[in-house]
Amino acid sequence: MSSVERARRVPQPEFLKNADQVLEAGGKIAAMAKDVAEARYPKKVRDLARLEAEAVEIGAYSDHNMHGLLQTEEYARALFAMRRPILSDEMIERQVTARLARQGVFDLQPAPIFSFVQEEATLRRPLGGRMVLRRQLEHLLEIGQLRHVDIQVMPMDREEHAGMGGELQLLKLKGG
After folding, report:
1. Is 114 exposed, middle or buried (0-12, 13-18, 19+ CB in 10 A)?
2. Who contacts 41 (Cβ-Cβ below 8 Å, separation ≥6)?
3. CB proximity list for 15: less than 8 A, separation 6 or greater
4. What's the Cα-to-Cα distance from 63 to each of 70, 120, 153, 155, 168, rounded to whole Å?
5. Helices first, then strands: H and E counts in the chain
6. Residues contacting 74, CB < 8 A, separation 6+
7. Which residues touch 140 (CB under 8 Å, ≥6 apart)?
8. Which of 29, 73, 85, 142 is the most exposed place for a label (fewest CB within 10 A)?
9. Each residue of 104-154: pLDDT tens digit?
């Protein structure tokens, strides 16, 4: 309780629910669970998730790993564990949770139109190990079956390539 009051610890949903009952807050404290959960994510992630949720079209080009919206939990965890400088276990979990939460954008109604271009290398590099890559590729096949998702692969054998400047994400928002 003291850690939550001093903002050293983020309250869990169960804590908020119990506090609401004990303090007879009529659901006001428990209703903050979603906001509190989102506040745990880094600001950059919250801002990106907000923009993605407002988008009617999302286009992305990824050159060295799978795009975040396409990643499995294992793949995302492996990526964050590779970061330099090294992230703490707590920060890795925060980043993974935030990344996976963004994937709710696939379920919005009406759903945005997605267009992903992945470098062939991102489909071959066994980040996290061969089984992690296998499950990631299976997940990619599942996502690619959605009617509002287009996934293309940029072959590695191209002599000229306009995407050599790095990753790119383009969001078309409602109203232009």
Report:
1. buried
2. 49, 94, 97, 98, 101
3. 4
4. 13, 8, 10, 11, 9
5. 8, 4
6. 128, 132, 135, 136
7. 66, 70, 123, 151
8. 85
9. 999 999 999 999 999 999 999 999 999 999 999 999 999 999 999 999 999
In angstroms, the CA 111 to CA 141 distance is 19
C-beta of residue 70 within 8 angstroms of C-beta of residue 117: no
Answer yes or no: are the C-beta atoms of 27 and 20 closer than 8 Å: yes
What's the rounded Cα separation, in Å, for the pair 137 and 95? 21
Only one residue has tokens 């009952």, namely 21
- Contact status, residue 85 vs residue 92, Cβ threshold 8 Å: no
If we measure between CA atoms, which residue out of 16, 120, 20, 15 comes closest to residue 63?
120
* Token pair 């692969």: residue: 153
Query: Residues for the chain: how many in total?
Result: 176
pLDDT tier at 37, thresholds 50, 70, 90: low
DSSP classification of residue 70: G
